[in-house]
Amino acid sequence: MADAPALTELLKDAPTNWGRWGPDDELGSLNYLTKDEVLRGVRSVRQGEVFTLQRLIGDPKGDPVWPGRTPAVRTMLLDESTWDKPDAPSFPGGLHYADDKIEAFLQGSTQYDALGHVWYDGKIWNGYDARTTVGGMKKASVEPIAERGVVGRGVLLDMARFRGKENLDKGETFTHEDLLACAEHQGVRIERHDILVIRTNFLRLFFEQGPAFYEGFCEPGLVYSPELVRWFQEMEIPNLVTDTIANEVTTDPSNGVALVLHNALMRNLGVAFTEICDLEKLAASCAADRQYDFLYVAAPLKVHEATGAPVNPVAIK
Ligand code: UVW
After folding, report:
1. CATH architecture of 7-57+106-316
2. What's the CA-to-centroid distance between 51 and ligand 1, angstroms?
3. Any keyword Chloroplast (predicted)?
């Protein structure tokens, strides 16, 4: 949209948590997840059921990725055919082994974003200069999140089931009030410091549409309003987890601005973003037994100065 307002203008009165945890902070709202919050999460384990939330890296179906990114490629480097070749290395005792590698966008699979991954006005999380991203994230990279790990009470908000749909549609939006209505419908309460896990069944939409998904690319998701940002701030939400690429409607339909919530929540409030999760098994279980809260445990890979890193989050009910 040619006359979309600048984020600087749109978010000029928006709250920030810059400085709240000191001038050197790189964890943002994950600071809310104290030892007491870990124990509160543990108290929501009632059945001993475990769900992993990562999509398969190298899935033959491909990966849903932001335009310009490409799916991960895994290449076999050594296998049994290697060892028949005349120039094959040899090891004492006749050892053979297999080796492979992956080439993948760190933002291209189930992943944690670094808090400094997006910005406007030349400043990333906590007010660090955006020049600190040049050549590698010297500030607010994914490393501090990976080093710390993320543990707390998670709550699944199944927006697709709540709206009586297989999946939300391209560009379909919802607000924090919809999340509250969904929670009420599910019989669960969203509490302060909860990790919000939102299901839209985006993967179904993506694979059903195929390449056509990228024509007028717009994911379903949360949509910006000052009230929504204030609600996240009052509820002190540490982490937003979804099954979409961007965790929010990609382009705000009311003003044409891209990724407003990445900026209002991640850059300004320090909310951690976990994207492209596979929530299907967890959601089916929650719908069956009506337990929508669980212990959420995740630690992205430790990748030096990275903008994000793959993760396999675990929900334990
Ligand atoms: C961008 O911010 C561009 O992508 P993602 O949704 O992966 O964070």
Report:
1. 3-Layer(bba) Sandwich (3.50)
2. 25
3. no
Residue 317 to residues 46, 159, 273, 303: CA-CA distances in angstroms?
6, 20, 22, 29
What span, in angstroms and rounded, lies between the C-alpha atoms of 73 and 101? 8
Instruction: Indicate which residue's Cα is closest to atom 5 of ligand 1.
Output: 246
277-316 pLDDT, tens digit per residue, is 999 999 999 999 999 999 999 999 999 999 999 999 999 9
What's the rounded Cα separation, in Å, for the pair 46 and 193?
20
**What's the predicted TM-score (pTM) here?**
0.97
| Cα 231 to Cα 90: distance, rounded to the nearest angstrom | 63
The DSSP secondary-structure symbol of 248 reads: S
Q: Name the closest-CA residue to atom 4, ligand 1.
A: 246
Asked if residue 17 lies in contact with residue 270, where contact means CB atoms within 8 angstroms, the answer is yes
Ligand 1 centroid from CA 285, angstroms: 29
Query: Tokens representing 284?
Result: 């089916």
Q: Are strands 239-242 and 272-275 parallel, antiparallel or unpaired?
A: parallel
**Ramachandran angles phi, psi of 77, nearest 5°:** -105, -35
- DSSP bridge partners of 274: 112, 241
What span, in angstroms and rounded, lies between the C-alpha atoms of 83 and 85?
Answer: 5
Residues with CB under 6 A from ligand 1: 66, 107, 113, 117-118, 245-246, 259, 262, 275
What gap in Å lies between CA 43 and CA 304, rounded to an integer?
A: 34
Q: How far is it, in rounded angstroms, from Cα 302 to Cα 142?
A: 7
For residue 11, the SS3 value is coil
Domain regions of the chain by residue span: 7-57+106-316, 73-102
